[in-house]
Design brief:
Elements (H helix, E strand, L loop, with lengths): L1 H18 L7 E2 L2 E2 H30 L5 H37 L5 H34 L8 H8 L2 H15 L5 H24 L8 H19 L9 H18 L1
Antiparallel strand pairs: 1-2
Helix pairs in contact: 1-2, 2-3, 4-7, 4-8, 6-8, 7-8
């Protein structure tokens, strides 16, 4: 343990110096490759190292004194502090990537570059990541029973809120769409995939229909109603009725004849 705690920071520092030579040469997800390394590889490694160091220090020095609640408190304080630090590192990496682009091309469209992160990367990761997280929790619930037990009425009452949550989530999809409906179609695809996963689990495992599997049944219902809404919702505007189209063409034709 002590050897690992000593080697990790040395290796991280050495790798950072070596990688810096690639500054401005390659990109990953339109981040400069070096900045991507700093934000999404180096910083998580540092986070885990400091967490391990903190745990080792508290358990070795105060193992007989510190309680589990106090250990959780110190871990929470450290994690929140590091989350703020990580946020600013990502901001720096993004703006540094912008700077490198402007240095190469003073007329580079930074707005289009930033919209790439705002529209596609962040929206997709947030929504798909959230759906994947709840799917993972529901799968865990298949093997690990929930400790929150409800009466039969309470169980049904909780499931009855699924259509409301589904409608709110779908509204979020629509708000996050960019106006061309591509993002909405992508979300519909993922909704179908996650609902299919829950359906396969039901066919193969047949979980009990009670509150011990509340997370599985709730997420299944949410994805089911999301799939139903996605099936019936048409993002593209419907064409006008036939009589209105005929009248519009006739009016246009008459206008051309009068001009002649």
């Amino acid at each position: 343990m002590k050897i690992v705690l000593a080697l990790v920071p040395l290796l991280a520092l050495l790798t950072s110096v070596l990688v810096y030579n690639q500054n401005g040469k390659k990109e990953i997800l339109r981040f400069d490759m070096v900045q991507f390394f700093y934000s999404f590889i180096l910083m998580p490694t540092v986070f885990i190292w400091f967490k391990g160091f903190l745990f080792f220090l508290l358990k070795s020095e105060l193992g007989g004194v510190i309680s589990q609640n106090e250990l959780f408190l110190w871990d929470t304080i450290y994690s929140v502090f590091f989350l703020f630090l990580f946020a600013f590192v990502v901001i720096h990496s993004l703006t540094k990537s912008f700077e490198l682009k402007r240095n190469k091309d003073p007329l580079y469209d930074l707005f289009e570059h930033s919209e790439y992160y705002h529209l596609w990367v962040s929206h997709t990761i947030i929504f798909v990541g959230a759906m994947a997280l709840f799917t993972l929790i529901s799968i865990f619930n298949i093997w690990i029973d929930s400790t929150f037990l409800f009466s039969r009425f309470g169980f049904y009452a909780i499931l009855a809120t699924a259509p409301i949550i589904s409608a709110a989530v779908f509204k979020g999809f629509m708000i996050a769409d960019f106006g061309d409906f591509r993002f909405l179609k992508l979300m519909k695809l993922f909704v179908g995939v996650f609902f299919l996963i829950h359906g396969i689990i039901f066919i193969v495992i047949e979980p009990a229909f009670d509150s011990t599997k509340i997370m599985y049944w709730y997420t299944t219902n949410v994805f089911g109603f999301l799939s139903l809404i996605s099936f019936w919702h048409s993002p593209e505007p419907e064409p006008p009725p036939v009589h209105k189209r005929v009248a519009s063409k006739a009016k246009s034709l008459i206008g051309k004849i009068i001009k002649r």
